[in-house]
Input
Amino acid sequence: MNALNEPVFEVPYYQPTGQECELFEQAWKQHLPMLIKGPTGCGKTRFVAHMAARLKLPLFTVSCHDDLTAADLIGRHLITAGSTVWCDGPLTQAVRTGGICYLDEVVEARKDTTVVLHPLTDDRRILPIERTGEVLHAPDSFMLVVSYNPGYQHVLKTLKPSTRQRFVAMSFDFPPPEVEIGVVQQESGVSAEVAQRLVGLATSLRRLQGYDLEESVSTRLLVYAAKLMAAGMPPRMACLAALVEPLSDESDTIAALQSIVDTQF
Ligand code: ADP
Output
């Protein structure tokens, strides 16, 4: 809160790679829900946090999983000291406060859960709450944002076309090297030279073919490696811990990744 008792929104650092900030802002102004696709650790969550703060909107983030029910999003009755009270879920809170509701990895949620989003994602912009009989009308500032990683090739884990066609969508990827170097430096405090070497290493690791890697080195992992180095860890150990071990349990793959690290550090 500031002196006028208004909430202060600290804008988290986000380095754009294109016109994603402008697109997001226009989508918000036009009351359009947004779908962000991209690999894990490429900056989706940071981007949404950045935009929410820039637009001075409260942000309600939900990490979706396969046990997530509609009640987890909307709310439920809770029994406290003998009485029953209604407790809003994060989606309902976002609608009531006119904020952003961000559903991370939305494809993990059960299909019957994502269906509750439908009346919010067309021009009705309503949230019916069956349990209380309320029908909430989303204020103009409310926005629904969902993300998922299309790289996980789970046949069963995609959005139903009837759900995905309700969103404007954009694809994220790891930032281009010149941007990623700046991000690694800014997030960890390492020198430009170390950041450059780490990003060079990531480029080589991402090119690695022929191993059973579901995902490659993310910007998040690069930042982890850089943080360990900035704290004084030997570079090879930092890379092993942050860039190699998290990616695989296979000893052959670990050895191949480590041999690439050895060429750089
Ligand atoms: P995702 O939600 O895509 O899994 P995150 O948004 O959590 O990934 O990003 C992981 C980390 O990578 C962030 O915490 C941040 O340190 C860094 N990062 C990635 N891209 C950017 C960017 N464009 N600007 C600033 N930080 C970034």
